[in-house]
Amino acid sequence: MTAHNPTHDSRQQLVIIGNGMVGHHCVEQLIERGATEHYRIHVFGEERHRAYDRVHLSEYFSGKDADALALGEPDLHKTHGVELHLGTRISAIDRDAREVVTPEGRLGYDSLIIATGSYPFVPPVPGPDSDMHPQARLVYRTLDDLDAIRSHAKTARRGVVIGGGLLGLEAANALRSLGLEAHVVEFAPRLMPVQLDEQGGIALREHIEGLGVGVHVGRATEEIAALSAGDDYRYRMHFKGGETLDTDMVVFSAGIRPQDQLARDCGLEIGERGGIVIDDSCRTSDPEIFALGECALWQGRLFGLVAPGYTMARTVAGCLTGGEERFSGADMSTKLKLLGVDVGSIGDAHGVTEGAKSYRWIDEAGSGYRRLVVSADGKKVLGAVLVGDNSYYDTLLQYAQNGIDLPENPASLILPQSEGGVPTLGADALPDTATICSCHNVTKGAVCQAVDAGCADIAALKIETKASTGCGGCTALLKQVFENELESRGMEVDRSLCEHFAYTRQELYALVRVEGITRFEELLDRHGHGLGCDICKPTIGSILATCWNQPIMDPQNVALQDTNDTFMANMQKNGTYSVMPRVAGGEITPEKLVVLGEVARKYNLYTKITGGQRIDLFGAELHQLPDIWQELISAGFETGHAYGKSIRTVKSCVGNTWCRYGVQDSVGMALELEHRYKGLRTPHKIKMGVSGCTRECAEAQGKDIGVIATEAGWNLYVCGNGGMRPRHAELFATDIDSDTLIRYIDRFLMFYVRTADKLQRTSVWRESLEGGLDYLKEVIIDDSLGLGEELEAQMKHVIDTYECEWANALGDPEKLKRFRTFVNDQCGDPDIVNVTERGQPRPARADERPESLAVEISS
Amino acid sequence: MTAANAIRSDIDIHELCCTADLVAWSGVVALHQGHQIALFYLPQGHDRQGEAEIFALDNHDPFSGANVIGRGIIGDKGGEPVVASPIYKQHFRLRDGVCLEDPEQRLTVWPVRLEGDMVVLETPAPDHPTR
């Protein structure tokens, strides 16, 4: 801890208590506004984790870890000299001394921000001793809470959530994704009583029951009793009226309470039912102390959503840096996907405004419900409720927030459309003041300004305005506004592959397939112009290879390939190549291992084990490649496609064949996958992994396709990668058998090949997919596009026509002619000079080369 | 590989290789008196409409220091035929060897032409021919 008032530092001291989403946003805002010039900032977080995304907490159980949920740059604080104290609890605020009390001593402050958030409310239901029975009184709020839930779920079959609000349903989803039979108990007569009306609650309940989650509304829990060891479940919940429900664990999610204890203890003004009282500038009753987020009470109201918290964070950051922002309340409209069900609630959802009238649309067959609440004069939208389909939400929200006059037939806004899809309010109809992104308070005007300033794509726009980087709910709207703005400026978004083809990779793929084009020149004649270039040639070479699987060394293909594909080896910095035969699943016989060693020794190749469980032999010259491959193929090796944008390797652990913990034969599955997909050309390289148990030694979750064995079969993960921007793969399907696994992967790969952009890895492709993982599941698992059979047939064609490219080339003297360093001399490149390091050759650096050669090169 | 036929007194003609050694729309490399020459063969010319053309540039890539230009992909930039270095992908004009990304860098252009089945290089004859 730094000293109270270092003499060399004239800056004031600012202390922030709380490192949740809102506290963190406040720090970001302060940094952005240059507050570190005037303040030394200390941030205290009670949790041991960096600030993380609590809104998407349930994804912790579907593949995301703490890092994936973390907010902002990991070294944000360090970079800007902000002191971050994690796992540190402030025990008191001494307002007289202007100090906070930390476990390590006192720390002075000039300004203080309280962002302590809220805690879960656990009603005083009598139950067993909580030390002996922690699983009878779990809560759902922090990552540590989730870890506790996960650990208790291991020995449980059924879990009950008390509380049928937004968080309670999230918690039920979490239990479900842990494999438990989940139940929700709600005191009110319907689910989500705050956001939904009666009919909306009924529709939501039907959806959720349809997913196998038990829903018990209008139930007051009077006691939780421990059952004896011989019973089926651990606890029995007794409801008022005599009904009971047995369970192994109970999660309380019956609402939140502001975490205002520190403020109470130091005498700040507190609301009657809790909450630190703040004014429009978020100041508490002590003007040097601010409060924001869920612990703050503004005009008698608490705000349990992240967007108002962010607005308060901006207000405070503004106050401390000379800004003028004021907090003036917040819109509590929400759009959610709960257990996969769309739920939307806008403004006056219950129609309590005087004279309000409602339009309702009810679909009892499909459990759909929509309600539009309009003003007494029938001109404005006051509120809305949506269950089952949120595609109406954006438009309704814009009507409500911007006071736009309703169309002649207001009901059309919620009625199913016979054609043309959901009615959308054209982006041009929105006023400049319309809020596009409520998380970061970005208006349409700000988006337009950014476009004027040169933002030419959505990615640039997101960086410039921060729009759509919060909850992401406004992505579609942002895109709409962006495209509308470009259009109105007479600009076009150029998606051409390059100057030779005015098409995207996806469009070219379709043209090749539909028109049955098998040669680059044919495509160039019909749909392009010029000679082509180093962008379009390899891209189209890859498309042709995926579609028709012609050998890449065939004369019509050879000039299209990058040097790696041309010579079926990987070019290194000095113009030599590395050679990497396939070692499927990382399994290799001693005999083959010896051959690799002998070949490497004979040709003086540097030898290294790769991350993909293969052996790479470096330093072969062009004219040596055929000889090397002749020897490798004679020993039973085949090409490893390490040079191609193609399926590379399937990494595996030894699985249950050897391992004490393995539950399936991961090597067998890795071999099956690798041999099935080897040679498939894809928009970018693809790596896979198969682990034999959840210990995940094959690191399958870091791969484009990851497979992890379970007791019952396999879990499939998709769209992960290491590399420049690592991304955890996401859980795609659980406990599937081998046939289903292969069917899903067939479809997944072919769908990726068909729709991805050039050099777009699965992770980036996944992030660009509108509809995200759910959409992908619909296409692959539910076959929503009816493409399943076609994708499988395409894959079958590639598999059936596989041949080792090196074996093919070695059989054709014409093809071998290419493997000459010089067409008129047998010698190698005299400029290739190696030195020995650690017993192996490596390219000489400039200062290690003989002087005479340097002269030769520069002459 | 030295002068085979002297058809003019001030020019030496060297046969580098056969046209069969060339690869359509791609490059190969010939060695000439210690110089590595990348040969690019456009069987229908740079507009894909006319006579066959051949271009010859130094094989040495000034950016990577490796001798790899002959293994680059041929294409055009705004109609101007170019080769892309296979290492860091800079483009060099086939006509004059100038690098589009960095015009300071320029590859030597070798005077080659197709003659029958042969690719020939014409160099100035030594001042005092010994023939």
SSE blueprint:
The complex is a heterodimer of chains A (859) and B (131).
Chain A: E1 12-17, H1 21-32, E2 39-44, H2 66-69, H3 76-79, E3 83-85, E4 92-94, E5 99-102, E6 105-108, E7 111-114, E8 118-120, E9 138-139, H4 143-153, E10 158-162, H5 166-177, E11 181-186, H6 198-210, E12 214-217, E13 221-226, E14 235-239, E15 244-247, E16 249-252, E17 256-258, H7 261-265, E18 276-278, E19 289-291, E20 296-298, E21 301-302, H8 306-320, E22 334-338, E23 341-347, E24 357-363, E25 368-374, E26 381-387, H9 393-402, E27 435-437, E28 442-443, H10 444-452, H11 458-465, H12 475-488, H13 505-515, H14 520-527, H15 536-548, H16 555-558, H17 563-567, E29 570-571, E30 577-579, H18 590-602, E31 606-609, E32 615-620, H19 625-634, E33 647-652, H20 666-677, E34 686-691, E35 705-710, E36 713-718, E37 730-736, H21 738-755, H22 762-768, H23 772-780, H24 788-800, H25 805-810, H26 813-816, E38 834-837, E39 840-843, H27 851-858
Parallel strand pairs in A: 1-2, 1-7, 2-3, 7-19, 9-16, 10-11, 10-16, 11-12, 18-20, 33-34, 34-35
Antiparallel strand pairs in A: 4-5, 5-6, 8-17, 13-14, 14-15, 20-21, 22-23, 23-26, 24-25, 25-26, 27-28, 29-30, 30-32, 31-32, 35-36, 36-37, 38-39
Helix pairs in contact in A: 1-8, 10-12, 13-15, 21-24
Chain B: E1 3-8, E2 11-18, E3 26-32, E4 35-42, E5 53-58, E6 73-77, E7 80-84, E8 91-93, E9 112-115, E10 118-124
Antiparallel strand pairs in B: 1-2, 2-10, 3-4, 4-5, 6-7, 7-8, 9-10
Pathway (chain A): Nitrogen metabolism; nitrate reduction (assimilation)
Domain FAD/NAD(P)-binding (chain A): 13-299
Subunit structure (chain A): Homodimer which associates with NirD.
